[in-house]
Automatic annotation (TrEMBL):
It holds the Pfam family DUF4238. It comes from Fibrella rubiginis. It comes from the Bacteria. This is DUF4238 domain-containing protein.
Length: 288
């Protein structure tokens, strides 16, 4: 089926602009360092990570067809409120706290790293088990769960080709992730002056400690550079693993990074699997 063409961004433009700059031609640009290259590139924010119809879902219903992209756009509307809360009051309102949790889940499901991993699972012998894992919470009772292979929402995914099922699966993946993140605490770490946070094309750093078919466990931690100034650390207070000193900090508060934290957190961002690192501001470098 031919869908109307639409450029859809894997990384939101509103987010990239916080890390970007306006050039002499009054165009928004962002500094990008591609993995394996010894120089930086200046990329147009309008086109960077934009792919035609990348989030479209195969459907005769136009609402279903663009439901993923609509969700992306709806969540992006709360981004400036998150920044404004932190700038003006030093904490998040309940609304911005909820938006931030959803934005973290949304950016995970939009990134190539997690999409490629999901596609590989849909192409694997474990496809049925994976689909059961990400959709099981939609069952109304144990009897439905035990016959999940007969449920329409499961069958649509299981009977579709991996490529056609991917975007539907990512929405269920996001929904599954949100069930976990609603129980997470958020700590905000402010960058040091002159040492702004960077980000990447896989902006959420996920530290997993998993077993079996688990995707995320209660010990999992997430790091998200909200902007060059603020980084969100997300964790579950009831985790058995309390070794990370950031877990001891009060939720919904801003803490200044010290030298060791600034270096360690920036290293996490740099090492997170992604095609490109995004450097705050205009930065030109070439290593001969």
């Amino acid at each position: 089926m031919n869908h109307p063409k639409q450029d859809q961004h894997k990384i939101p433009q509103v987010y990239l602009k916080k890390f970007g700059y306006v050039d002499t031609n009054m165009q928004w640009k962002v500094t990008v360092s591609r993995r394996g290259e010894a120089f930086t590139r200046q990329k147009s924010i309008k086109s960077f990570t934009a792919v035609t119809n990348v989030f479209d879902i195969e459907s005769y219903d136009p609402i279903i067809r663009r439901i993923f992209e609509k969700l992306n756009c709806d969540l992006e509307t709360g981004y400036h409120d998150i920044i404004n809360d932190l700038d003006t009051t030093g904490e998040l309102t309940d609304k911005s706290y909820a938006f931030l949790l959803q934005l973290v889940a949304n950016l995970i499901t939009r990134s190539d790293y997690w999409r490629d991993l999901t596609l590989s699972l849909l192409n694997s012998p474990g496809k049925a088990r994976f689909l059961q894992f990400i959709t099981g919470h939609h069952c109304q009772n144990e009897a439905e769960y035990n016959t999940i292979d007969q449920q329409s929402f499961y069958r649509v995914l299981n009977e579709s080709s991996p490529g056609d099922a991917l975007n539907r699966a990512m929405l269920y993946f996001m929904d599954h992730l949100m069930l976990r993140l609603w129980n997470y605490e958020i700590v905000i770490i402010r960058s040091q002056d002159g040492k702004e946070w960077w980000t990447s094309t896989n902006p959420v750093v996920a530290h997993n400690k998993i077993e079996g078919m688990e995707i995320f466990a209660k010990e999992s931690e997430f790091y998200f550079p909200i902007s060059p100034t603020y980084l969100a650390y997300l964790h579950f207070k009831g985790s058995d693993d309390q070794t990370n000193p950031l877990r001891a900090l009060a939720t919904n508060q801003i803490y200044e990074a010290d030298d060791a934290q600034n270096a360690a957190l920036q290293q996490l961002i740099l090492e997170n699997p992604s095609d490109c690192v995004i450097i705050a501001g205009e930065f030109r470098c070439r290593i001969e």
